[in-house]
Amino acid sequence: MAELLRTDSLTKTFRGLVANSEIDFSLDAGEIRCIIGPNGAGKTTFISMISGHQAPTAGAIWFKGRNITGLPVYRIARLGILRKFQTPTVFDNLTVYENTELAVLATPTPPRERYAKILRTLELVRLAEVVAQVVGTLSHGQRQWLEIGMLLARDAELVLLDEPTAGMTAEETHATGELVRRLVEELGLAAIIIEHDINFIRDLRAPVTVLHLGRILVEGSFAEISGDAQVRSVYLGDA
Amino acid sequence: MTAAGPAPPSLGRRLTSSEDGVAVLALALFALLPVVVSGYSIYILPQYMLHGVMAMSLALLWGRGGVLSFGQAGFYALGAYTMGLCYRWVPLVNPAYAGMLIAFAVGGLLAAVLGYFLFRAGVRSAYFVLVTLAVSIIAEQVAVSQSQITGGWNGMYIDRMSLTLGDAVNVSLFDDAPMYYFVLVVVVAVYACLRWLAHAKFGKVLVGIRENEDRVLSLGFDVSAYKTATFAIAGALSTFAGALYGTHAGFVAPSLGGVLFSTEVVVWVAIGGRSSLLGAFLAAIGVSFLSNYLSALIPAYWPLILGMLFLAVIIFFRGGVAGALARWTRQPATRSAGNG
Q1: Given A120, A212, B185, B313, which residue has the most CB atoms within 10 angstroms?
Q2: Contact B275/B47 with Cβ under 8 angstroms?
Q3: Chain B touched by A92 (CB under 8 Å)
Q4: Is B62 contained in some domain?
Q5: Above 0.90 for ipTM, yes or no?
Q6: Domain for residue B152, yes or no?
Q7: pTM of the shown model
Q8: Residue B166 domain-assigned?
């Protein structure tokens, strides 16, 4: 598979505090990658630099062979890198339909095809039945799915999911895992997922990158990672 | 929480579908008014309608985009002075045409430049309000200090405009009724344009910015460009309306651009309902009428009454009169947050 995203010695410091240190990372088209690590490992900082919400102190980010380091958020989104935030970031006072419509309006979809695209997306994320409901009245899990749906409706090629199952029931978590698999297998998306839920990560059967103190500690399959002594000591051991 | 099933359309949509009917009715009543009424009302109403255009520009900026400006009256005064200067300096063509055109362009350009630097720099909410307050203060101060051009405290006299077309047509708007109808046509045109804009993609993105700026940005919209464009449109409209106000009133003084009047504009829009263009327009007329009447009757208490009205709206009716009406005339909304 072709390389979709690469970072070269990506580094971010906040007033001397090193959040990310020389991260060399690579992701193929259509790949899912989980990023795990203890609190403060620099996971959110890492995807914030990819999405353009934070500018790197040093290093470079390449997307489809193009240097995107330091581009503004909206320009990166237009390239197809879309981010889901840790807390659901949706339009709580608007309806499910209006939320998804705004995502579609950001794409060059012709007006007469917008309606079908909105409904198609909402069916995929299991929200077709609440299409006219105001988002603030939905469950936490449904709002998480809506945000993922909005990334799809925006024609994402790479989705950055920051704790997509946070606050979900076991059942919702399982459904989210299935959703993510479908996105990758049916729509050919690539995904970088920050997660804490070990069962969710195991079920995804995806490669894992472990961050610790702003550096990549180790990368590999879930089986390799969970057998790694270093990882056990810093992360799984106290989980 | 609501039960599943056919959910009602959003408050925004309910507001607008009912609003169109009210708008047609209100504008038709305005068109008929000179037939039954004459005298002072017909003289003063166009001025209030032009205030209403300024209020609609703020309803777009604040109600849709979530950007509150205390500077709209500064633009309004700029327009009135521009009209006055055109009558003094522009030869050959109809100075009123030049005044309207130049006011629109200068107001839009000024707001665009100001907005570009402020929004690029990420100036938001309270800080933006402070900057626009400064705009009002600057407008008033410049009008006072540049007295050789503006007349300073004494103000500037402006001729009443005529409608001309080459040498063939020359319709004087010196009488109240013709001027009234000319302003009404302008109002209808502005309302139609703004209504269209609010329902187009542009307006939807603005509502998104008001509701959650980060999400809109992360979907790939250039948020600061949208805000700049909106501020420019609002600035151009306010300045344009101010130019017409100048030629209608025949006189402009520095206080037209001052903080006091700017604040009054915000009060109108809050009372009318900031997400309703029509609500803002009608509130501007209604409160101006009341202000004119009561400030003669009880000059000491009127500002107090206005202030309390404003507080009541902010505390009890966040959506203003339009928002409250929409909520009462239809079934209870699914949203508790309202539209303001």
Answers
A1: B313
A2: no
A3: yes
A4: yes
A5: yes
A6: yes
A7: 0.90
A8: yes
